[in-house]
Amino acid sequence: MKTNFIHTHLSVDCVVFGFDDKQLHILLVQRNGGENNANSLKLPGSLIYEGEDVDDAAQRVLLELTGIKRMKLKQFHCFASPDRANKPEDMKWLDQTYRSNINRLITVAYLSLCKIDRKLTNVSKYKASKWCPISDLPEMPFDHNQIVASSLTEIRNWIEHDISIAFELLPNKFTISQLHRLYEAVYDKKIDIRNFHKKIAALNDVIPLDEKQEGVAHRAARYYKFDKHSYNKRKMTI
Amino acid sequence: MKTNFIHTHLSVDCVVFGFDDKQLHILLVQRNGGENNANSLKLPGSLIYEGEDVDDAAQRVLLELTGIKRMKLKQFHCFASPDRANKPEDMKWLDQTYRSNINRLITVAYLSLCKIDRKLTNVSKYKASKWCPISDLPEMPFDHNQIVASSLTEIRNWIEHDISIAFELLPNKFTISQLHRLYEAVYDKKIDIRNFHKKIAALNDVIPLDEKQEGVAHRAARYYKFDKHSYNKRKMTI
DNA sequence: TCAAAAGTGTTCGATATACACCCATGC
DNA sequence: GCATGGGTGTATATCGAACACTTTTGA
Questions:
Q1: Partner residue opposite A7 with nearest CB, options B8, B52, B99
Q2: Do A146 and A182 reside in the same domain of the chain?
Q3: How confident is the model at residue A36 (pLDDT cuts 50, 70, 90)?
Q4: Closest of A168, A206, A175, A141 to residue A17, by C-alpha
Q5: Beta bridge partners of B9
Q6: Which of A139, B19, B175, B187 is least enclosed, having the fewest CB within 10 Å?
Q7: What does pTM read for this prediction?
Q8: Residue A46 belongs to what domain range?
Q9: Which residues of B32-68 are buried (b: 16+ CB within 10 A; e: fewer)?
C-alpha cells in the first residue's frame, strides 16, 4: 500500500493568447531535441525547480519565452491523467530532454496574454516560437490540445471577472472596432456594435483620445486607451 | 541546471462543505499518528497512487471519508509553495505517516459537498471526522487554513454556475427558508425573502410538494424538492 | 461617386431591488 | 392571545437585446 504512493515530476504549461484583429492565437514552441519530427509544436512549459512555486515556474517559462517580466497569468487546471505522457514519442522526448527517468508527469496549466505584435526576446532553450490561430492548431504532444480546449472557456470567465485582461491583448492605443472584434473572437459570436459602443462608453477607464487613425480608406476611427491604474484603484474600493 | 528539476510528492486535499441551517461547516479529520498534539484537525487528503488521476484520488479520499461513491467534486487550485510543508511538526507527521523521505509536497485542492446529517461510514485510516463551522476553524497544519479560505470564493462561483450543487447541502425535502438561509450563509449577506421566493418560484426544477412541516410552533412551511434529472436535461439542451 | 468602415438612439422586455403586512400554529 | 416564523405583491430602476441609417475618408 505505502509503496503505491508515488512521487512524480511536475511541470507547468502556459497557454499564451494573442489577438491579430481577426482571431485568437496561441504561442507555441518548437519541441527541441526532436529533429526527426521537425514540425512538432507544443505549449511552452517546464518542469518546476526545487524550491520553486508553480506560479513562479510559470513566470519563469513566460520570461524565457518572451523576455517579459511578471506577465499576467492565471492558474486554471491541473492535468494528471496517468495516460497523458505515455505515448512512445512523448516518453522518448522526455528522456532526451530531461535525462531523468520520468515515470509520470503531471502538469499545472496556466493562462496568459500577450500583445501579438510585441517583439519577443526569446532567451530560452526554445529554438523558435510561433503564433498559431486557435482555429488551426497542429496536433500537439501530451494532452496539450485538450489543455488548449479547456483554456478557451477559462479565458471567457477571466475576461468576465476582470475586463482589464482584454487590454493585454490590444495595443496601448486601440479602436472600439478592435475591441469589438476581440470580444467577438473570445465569445465566438456576433455582438451588436451599437450596444457594444454603449457598453464601452459606460466604462470609466476606457478613455477616448483626441487621436484618430490616419491613411485609412474610410472614415478614421478614434483611438482609446485603457487606464489600468484607475481601473485597479476602482476595483480595490469595491 | 538539470539537477535542479525535482520530483515531488503530490497529494489531494478536499474541502467538504456541509450546512446545518445556520452556517457552513467543513468536514475535518483527526491527524492520526500525532498522539501528542491530540487536537490536530486537518483537511482530509492523501498522496496520490501510482496510475491514479488526481480526480480519482479525490474521489477515493471522499469515499474513504464518507462511504459515498462519486460525490460531486471540483478541482479548484494547486497549492505548491515550497514553504507549505516545512513546519517541523508537519514534516515529522509526514515522515511518520508515509515512511518516505518527502522533500516537497504539492497539493491539488478540491471542493465537495455533503448533507451534514448524512451518516458517514468512515472506512478509512481516519480515526474520526468532525464538522467544524467555518466561522470557528482550528489552526490546521500545512496551508490548510489558506486552502479553506480560497475555497469560500470558489463555492460561490460554483453555485452561481450550477444551482444544483446548493441542493447537495440540503435534505431531499427542504423548505424555502432553509434554502434562503443557505444562500445567506454562502454569500454572507442578507437576502430579501420576498425576492427570494420569486426567484425560486421561477426555477422550474424546484418543485413544491403537498407536504408541510409538522409540530412546529408556528405556521408550517411547505416542503420542496429539487428535480435533478429535469435540471440536468434542461442544462444539456441549453 | 463609390466602397468601406465608423459612429450614433430608441424601444422593449426581462431582471433585480426595495419595501410591510397578514397568516397559521403551538404554547 | 401571543410569540414565532411562513408567506405574499407592487412599483421602480437597471440591464441587455433588437434594430437602420448617416458620416467620413481614400481611391
A1: B8
A2: no
A3: low
A4: A168
A5: A7, B105
A6: A139
A7: 0.94
A8: 8-161
A9: bbbeeeeebbbbbbbbbeeebbbbbbbbbbbbbbbee
